[in-house]
UniProtKB/TrEMBL annotation:
It comes from Streptomyces koyangensis. Residues 219-307 form the Peptidase M20 dimerisation domain. This is Amidohydrolase. SUPFAM superfamilies: Bacterial exopeptidase dimerisation domain, Zn-dependent exopeptidases. Pfam families: M20_dimer, Peptidase_M20. InterPro entries: Amidohydrolase (IPR017439), Bact_exopeptidase_dim_dom (IPR036264), Peptidase_M20 (IPR002933), Peptidase_M20_dimer (IPR011650). PANTHER family: METALLOPEPTIDASE, PUTATIVE (AFU_ORTHOLOGUE AFUA_6G09600)-RELATED, PEPTIDASE M20 FAMILY MEMBER. Transmembrane segments: none annotated.
């Protein structure tokens, strides 16, 4: 397990669990079996009816209806999809920001290839292949348990549930949600993301960056074209495109600290129609990923400059479209410790394992530009299962016992947070 040099893992910064954390039996907010069964059925319903970003109308209605059945008052976001719901009331004179629990609710435009799952997607070329149905169900379940505690007078401080649309759509629905005021009154925010490399019953956690920045790059190169017998009389556009592909990543890598992990990777190159014709146009597209927040902020200028230099060297005109994606998710130490403490309170300190920074992107990072928070990796692998069911694959599936784990970690975090922050 790797982490940033000098950055302590949550296990090294957390308080001694035996001394400071109540035993599971003493901490309220566990998930009743009947509600757990209902949540599994809710997750399966979402899984069967996946909706793409900004189209999650059925999903939003299902969440809203269940929260209203619990006596709560959810508010749908102005876009018509996604919602927030506050639970509990603030004590007189309490000016502290509330804790928010965030879930993303959208699906992916890929087919569900699980042949033996009765809850496989019923929508062609749509699938919950990134676990957002689990994230949604986990936050919903936590909200229902916390609402029950609030009715009993056992919820010390209010908690906000945030169901966010369009995580999979760059630059992510989080930015629009923030403009819609979802962070007003929030002092800390927590989330989970399914991890098929971690066993159900466990979470992966780290202090500092846990995901990477991810942007999209589109390039058009143009020249006069000509005969392949006379490349010296025109712009050899195929060679120019090839040099952009090979030289730009190397050039960019030499203009930032190597530890930043700034990487340009190409996914598409298209040019030409005949073997003896130098084309007039070429197109390239790829991604820009970065482990470091400061380097990510420099990336557009660095990459623009490198592309222009290489293109000019071969006489090609370049048009660059740089599409900002998301910055890295950088876990706040205190928020990561809260998740560690909550999970240890429910299932013991051994249920928390260190995790590495991934090269995937997550728009939860936009919230952390405004308030401190942390994301944990929720283990969803069936213990002992030899089959790999990775994210963004049509056969992705989870051990549904992870839903209880996520719910009870969130409820513990809400109760512990109430007494932790001044």
């Amino acid at each position: 397990m790797s982490r940033e040099p000098g950055a302590p893992a949550p296990a090294e910064t957390a308080r001694d669990q035996a001394a400071d954390v109540p035993a599971a039996i003493e901490l309220a907010g566990t998930l009743p079996d009947r509600l757990c069964a209902e949540l599994i059925a809710f997750r399966r319903d979402l899984h069967m009816h996946p909706e793409l970003g900004n189209q999650e109308f059925r999903t939003t209605l299902a969440i809203k209806t269940r929260l209203e059945q619990a006596g709560l008052a959810p508010r749908v976001l102005d876009s018509g999809t996604g919602l927030i719901c506050d639970i509990g009331t603030r004590a007189e004179g309490d000016e502290r920001g509330m804790l928010a629990l965030r879930a993303d609710i959208d699906a992916l435009p890929i087919p569900d290839t699980k042949a033996d799952a009765p809850y496989r997607s019923t929508v062609p070329d749509r699938a919950h292949a990134c676990g957002h149905d689990v994230h949604t169900t986990t936050v919903l379940g936590a909200g229902l348990v916390l609402a029950a505690l609030d009715r009993e007078g056992k919820l010390p401080r209010p908690v906000r549930l945030l169901f966010q649309p369009a995580e999979e759509v760059l630059p992510g629905g989080a930015a629009d949600a923030i403009e819609n005021g979802v962070l007003d009154g929030v002092g800390r925010i927590l989330a989970v993301h399914c991890d098929p490399k971690v066993d159900a019953g466990r979470i992966g956690l780290r202090v500092g960056p846990i995901t990477s920045a991810c942007d999209r790059l589109e390039i058009a190169l143009d020249g006069p074209g000509g005969h392949t017998a006379r490349p010296h009389l025109t712009t050899d556009l195929v060679t120019a495109a090839a040099k952009v592909v090979t030289d730009v990543p190397a050039l960019v890598a030499r203009r930032v600290d190597a530890r930043s992990g700034l990487a340009v990777t190409w996914g598409r190159i298209d040019s030409g129609h005949a073997c003896n014709v130098i084309p007039q146009h070429a197109e390239l597209s790829g991604t820009v990923r970065c482990l470091d927040l400061d380097a990510w902020r420099l990336a557009p200028d660095l990459i623009h400059s490198a592309i222009d230099e290489i293109a000019a060297l071969y006489g090609a005109k370049s048009e660059i479209t740089y599409i900002r994606g998301v910055p890295p998710v950088v876990n706040d130490p205190a928020a990561a410790e809260l998740l560690h403490t909550a999970m240890a309170a429910r299932r013991g300190a051994a249920s928390v394992e260190g995790t590495e920074q991934s090269l995937g992107g997550e728009d939860f990072s936009w919230y952390l530009e405004h308030v401190p928070g942390a994301m944990a990796r929720l283990g969803v692998r069936r213990p002992g299962d030899p089959v790999s069911r990775d994210l963004h694959r049509g056969d992705f599936d989870v051990d549904e016992s992870a839903i209880r784990v996520g719910v009870e970690m969130f409820t513990a975090a809400a109760l512990l947070d109430a007494g932790e922050r001044p």
